[in-house]
Write the structure tokens for this entry.
Amino acid sequence: MSADLRPGLAGIPPESLAAWFAERGHASFRARQLNDALWAGGATAAASIGTLPAVLRSEIDAAFSLDTVADTELRLADDGRTEKALHRLADGALIESVVMHYPARRTADGQQRERNTVCISSQAGCAVGCPFCATGELGFSRDLSTAEIVDQVRSAARRLARRGRRLTNVVFMGMGEPLLNLDRVLEAISALADPDRYGLGARHITVSTSGVVPGIRRLTALGPQFTLAVSLHAARDPLRDVLVPLNRRWPVAEVVGAARDHARVTGRRVSYEVTLIDGVNDTDADADALANLLRGDLCHVNLIPMNPVAHTPWTASPIERIERIAARLRRAGIAVTIRRNRGQEVGAACGQLAAERAGEPAAPAVARRRELLVVRSAAALRGERMTEPAEAGLVAALAQDEDRPPVAPLAAAPATTAG
């Protein structure tokens, strides 16, 4: 079966869609009808849009895909509060998204509101290669198109609507490094935040990065109102070299400096994610280094127990140690939240289902990987920096990103507050 080469409709800007209709002699209101069916009606096929003539529906179906993630497998966990989706794209690439339901709680304005968050992917695979992440083991396949990113959100929203729920938040924390596919990510955010398309307020969107400093600087120049999250995981360079290989390109002080500037320019608090690994990055020295690095910054720290991932020698830090780290950070005046793992029984951690489909790697390769991680983390704990160059896939991805033209200002998402 040949790959579907039609562009995804959700990634087509409104002005381009209007031009497509005009070129074919269709009235302009037909573009609005299609737009309404796609975004408000959740249409996944042109045949279902009864407001359009049959001939026009056939034209649309021949030209565009209304759902680029139609081939989706679902798994539920946590009594239905966590839903993991494995999406097979037109070329066979596998990506993942996760919907997480949080029951209603009282907010600062006294309202009772539930949250329904979808965590989405920006790339198929990932070149950064963090060793505690299942996606890193898969390697990098390709960037996602704008529609492939947006359609993960549309798919989640449709599933929630069937249960009488509404999607409230989108986080780019799934497979891939969003700032290495920044143009498409910004186009997706623009579509999601546009009141005439999806209509989610920009402040309900979070974009995460493992530390692509040029990407952070480009975001700062645009001044967006969505939240920036940084996957930090360690405040000391020797250890972060192991946990986040990108650190060998942009050391931790440079990453945090860029994020600090971003908070100053945008007025938006930066979120730092720290995955805690037993005996690796959960010592009092690590907590103090993190406190010294972030003290006085407009930021918030999320402490996350490591999700079990195959082929690593590591396990999650015990909750008592995580609470101790949180207390040390709070004494330094840093806001902290301890996140609880969700969906472990369905492999909800990033990349786990896709890795499962990819098959078990050869036993000698697994043994070698585990041995390297033990040796490298032990050296890092002694304060020794890594001397090996970054992995070839990461180098290639960074070179590709540097060759791209600058992001145009119009790609920035409007700062709306509607949910």
